[in-house]
Design goal:
alpha+beta; 27% helix; 23% strand; globular; binds ligand MTE; binds molybdenum atom
Length: 241
């Protein structure tokens, strides 16, 4: 988008403030999230368009070490399957994260293989939509590194990620997937990622609300559509903070 059209769009968003206007502009500039339309569509579109334009590629806030929360909250549930128990009892030695879909070289990564990529640690806040939050140090491999190794095909638009826990599969757009702070995490506060916080592998998406940071991730699929894929269940698909 040119500088002028960007300014015009921002002016329109600020000046009219109407959801219908924002919706039309978002549509015109290709900024409609996949859950646009329906009862809550206009509101979601406004958030997505406004955030994508105003925030762009900005970084989620990172905190100094002394801000790390002493007792982080957790929603605690874990996959209730025999397969998950089996993998856990074996120290997740057989856990795999598949990278597939619109990639040149599909991958199936063990924890050891994930850890062989250059890691990044960042101290960020995990913010639940219900109003609580905590700060922790997260360690993992930038999803961008893994996607690059797999070779993302040019028609890619979204990344769908699956959890070993039912009902938590979700998706993000490619920009968020390639953002340097979006990590496939396997460590928290200097130790292995605890099961309560989604171990052995959790996708941390620190620029969005906590429900986008899906725990027990075992598959990442690159797509050009979200048709037929779950997109956040009853939550808004785009959860920028
Ligand atoms: N697989 C899975 N991922 C999940 C959830 C879950 O229940 N299962 N809860 C989400 C929500 S709503 C929140 S607030 C955070 C909670 O993360 P925590 O348990 O590390 O505090 O995980 C998110 N990711
Ligand atoms: Mo949450």
């Amino acid at each position: 988008m040119s500088r002028t059209s960007r300014r015009n769009l921002l002016g329109a968003l600020a000046g009219f403030g109407g959801l219908a206007v924002a919706d039309r502009l978002a549509d015109r500039y290709g900024l409609l999230p996949p859950d646009a339309g329906g009862l809550y569509g206009a509101g979601h579109s406004l958030t997505y368009a406004a955030q994508r334009l105003l925030v762009g590629d900005s970084l989620a806030r990172e905190f100094p070490r002394h801000k790390i929360s002493a007792s982080p909250f957790s929603t605690k549930g874990r996959p209730k399957t025999a397969e998950f128990e089996r993998l856990a009892n074996n120290g997740f030695a057989e856990w795999r994260v598949a990278i597939d879909g619109l990639v040149a070289r599909p991958l199936s990564l063990s924890l050891a293989e994930l850890k062989s990529y250059a890691s990044r640690s960042q101290i960020t806040q995990l913010t639940c939509e219900e109003g609580w939050s905590f700060v922790a140090e997260w360690t993992g491999v930038p999803l961008a590194e893994v996607l690059q190794a797999a070779g993302v095909l040019p028609q890619a638009k979204y990344v769908v990620y699956a959890s070993a826990q039912r009902h938590w599969d979700d998706s993000i757009d490619l920009a968020e997937a390639l953002h340097p702070q979006t990590l496939l995490t396997y460590g928290m506060n200097g130790r292995d990622l605890p099961l309560d916080h989604g171990g052995p592998v959790r996708l941390r998406v620190p620029r969005q609300l906590a429900y986008k940071s899906v725990k027990f991730v075992n598959r990442v699929t690159v797509t050009d559509t979200l048709q037929g894929h779950p997109a956040g269940g009853s939550y808004a698909w785009y959860a920028g903070i």
